[in-house]
């Protein structure tokens, strides 16, 4: 019943904001203008289509807001007016009443925020789909940001996920691509990450881990700034962190006026992404412009500042090695190796013809090399890749959904900062260096060093283990004799069974003969 009510709510919002009209108006087929006029049922819209779409997503809740956030970074896939409106979803979602936030802080931390902090701003500075943020000052003078969870989020998310599960099952049954796309597994992954985002202790732990990976004072500290977690002021519903200052990455003119090297900033973003994915296997997976600042402080000018750590991704060693080899093969235009990797990993059926898959991948990718991003029609690339994957039954890997989403975010940021960014040229040296460190002599030395403590524990025990093994009596000859005896007993049993069956058959024949003679 709740699912049906939520579905009715969604249809009501679609009708109210005219989203059906927005979709149908893009169809250029004879007779459609009359159909659109009929479908409007006399409705009139004074607000632009982008505003209506944004308001509709805001009213439908966090899942739809997040969907809009992802779309806002893909200006190559939608009209400019819609992209501009969806960009407002990144940090301008309507806030909930401050009284609710204050009551939650008092419940979670045991004191009213005006007592707990030397200063607490009752007006939220930012409001997102899951939580909102208030600035405060600790009694020791440190500036902090207090993130407070939106009330009632769990029930809304569960309703929407239930609907997505129904849609996923319908797609799996009705669509010829349903099984290959694994929609139910994708929804399950989305379910996990959304529920993780509702636990602010988990987000604080993610923040702490990322800060260690880019620790201040280390070479990596010059790449990315991550706030410090204030654990004494953090619970599952309240997350207090160091307040970070900077310019939103989307305000390019302001960054340029502050003296930031914009092309370098775009290249640094790519390097930070690849460092997180391939070196750490732990990456910030919600990198839309609302979550990224750029420092304008002279001491750290042009350095990225990360915010919002509710969604992070992790990759296994197998995933990292496989992805790195695929990237390098693409950069080297070794399409045969790409095809081999897909077959070896099980992403395509084992009986796939290697040369056929190689030719299809070449046809998709070759036209787009050596071009700046501004000249690439990503929509056309995705369409051709989808057609190729459908032809070869490529299976979508649910564990890589977050990585795929983050790649879209990173590419969108790169396009926004520097349309002439050569993504391949920027990433290739890093991946070649990474593979050399993993596969070459450097990698061998590193692995031996990592295993040294374990070997140091095992090596002294080896002589004793070898002596114990050699001191044990040789049971081989006795085992051979016992096996021979068992085989002989089995053969004898088989003979007795055959004889018994013969006697029974003869007795049955005699009985039948006697009955017939009688």
Protein model, in words:
By secondary structure, this protein is α+β, with helices and mostly antiparallel strands. Among the domains are: 1-91 and 154-196, no CATH class; 315-443, no CATH class. The chain contains 23 helices and eleven strands. It has helices spanning 2-17, 19-24, 32-39, 49-60, 62-72, 80-86, 98-109, 113-116, 153-174, 178-181, 183-197, 200-213, 252-257, 262-280, 317-331, 335-345, 354-365, 378-391, 401-417, 423-439, 441-458, 462-471, 476-517; strands at 119-120, 126-127, 131-137, 143-149, 224-225, 238-242, 247-248, 282-284, 292-294, 304-306, 312-314. The strands form three sheets. Strands 1, 2, 3, 4 and 6 form a five-stranded antiparallel sheet that branches. Strand 3 (131-137) and strand 4 form a beta hairpin. The longest helix has 42 residues, at 476-517. It is extended, with a radius of gyration of 32 Å. The mean pLDDT is 79. This is Ubiquinone biosynthesis regulatory protein kinase UbiB. It comes from Pigmentiphaga aceris. One of its GO terms (molecular function) is kinase activity. Pathway: Cofactor biosynthesis; ubiquinone biosynthesis [regulation]. Keywords: ATP-binding, Cell inner membrane, Cell membrane, Kinase, Membrane, Nucleotide-binding, Transferase, Transmembrane, Transmembrane helix, Ubiquinone, Ubiquinone biosynthesis.
């Amino acid at each position: 019943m709740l699912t049906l009510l939520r579905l009715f709510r969604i249809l009501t919002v679609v009708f109210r904001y005219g989203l059906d009209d927005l979709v149908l108006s893009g169809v250029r087929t004879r007779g459609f203008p009359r159909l659109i006029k009929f479908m409007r049922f006399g409705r009139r819209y004074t607000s632009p289509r982008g505003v209506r779409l944004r308001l509709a997503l805001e009213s439908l809740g966090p899942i739809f807001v997040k969907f809009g956030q992802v779309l806002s970074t893909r200006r190559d896939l939608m009209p400019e007016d819609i992209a501009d409106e969806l960009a407002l979803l990144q940090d301008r979602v309507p806030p909930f009443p401050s009284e609710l936030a204050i009551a939650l802080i008092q419940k979670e931390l045991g004191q009213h925020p005006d007592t707990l902090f030397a200063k607490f701003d009752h007006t939220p500075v930012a409001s997102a789909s899951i939580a909102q943020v208030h600035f405060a000052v600790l009694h020791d003078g440190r500036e902090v940001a207090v993130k407070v969870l939106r009330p009632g989020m769990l029930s809304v998310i569960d309703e929407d996920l239930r609907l997505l599960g129904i849609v996923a099952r319908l797609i799996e049954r009705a669509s010829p691509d349903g099984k290959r796309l694994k929609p139910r597994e994708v929804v399950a992954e989305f379910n996990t990450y959304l529920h993780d985002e509702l636990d602010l202790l988990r987000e604080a732990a993610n923040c702490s881990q990322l800060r260690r990976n880019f620790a201040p004072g280390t070479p990596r500290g010059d790449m990315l700034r991550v706030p410090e977690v204030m654990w004494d002021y953090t619970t599952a519903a309240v997350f207090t962190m160091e307040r970070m200052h900077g310019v939103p990455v989307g305000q390019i003119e302001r960054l340029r006026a502050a003296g930031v090297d914009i092309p370098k900033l775009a290249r640094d973003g790519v390097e930070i992404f690849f460092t997180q994915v391939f070196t750490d296997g732990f990456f910030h997976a919600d990198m839309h412009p609302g979550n990224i600042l750029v420092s304008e402080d002279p001491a750290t000018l042009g350095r990225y500042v990360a915010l919002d750590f509710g969604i992070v991704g992790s990759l296994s060693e197998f995933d990292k090695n496989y992805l790195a080899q695929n990237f390098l093969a693409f950069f080297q235009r070794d399409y045969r190796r790409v095809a081999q990797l897909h077959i070896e990993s099980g992403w395509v059926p084992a009986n796939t013809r290697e040369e056929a898959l190689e030719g299809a991948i070449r046809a998709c990718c070759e036209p787009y090399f050596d071009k700046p991003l501004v000249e690439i029609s990503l929509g056309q690339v995705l369409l051709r890749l989808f057609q190729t994957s459908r032809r070869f039954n490529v299976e979508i890997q649910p564990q890589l959904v977050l990585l795929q989403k983050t790649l879209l975010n990173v590419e969108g940021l790169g396009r926004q900062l520097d349309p002439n960014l050569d993504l391949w040229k920027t990433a290739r040296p890093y991946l070649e260096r990474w593979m050399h460190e993993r596969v070459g002599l450097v990698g061998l030395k590193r692995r031996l060093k990592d295993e040294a403590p374990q070997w140091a524990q095992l090596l002294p025990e080896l002589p004793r283990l070898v002596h114990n093994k050699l001191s044990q009596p040789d049971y081989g000859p006795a085992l051979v004799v016992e096996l021979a005896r068992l085989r002989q007993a089995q053969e004898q049993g088989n003979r007795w069974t055959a004889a018994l069956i013969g006697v029974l058959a003869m007795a049955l024949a005699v009985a039948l003969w006697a009955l017939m003679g009688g």
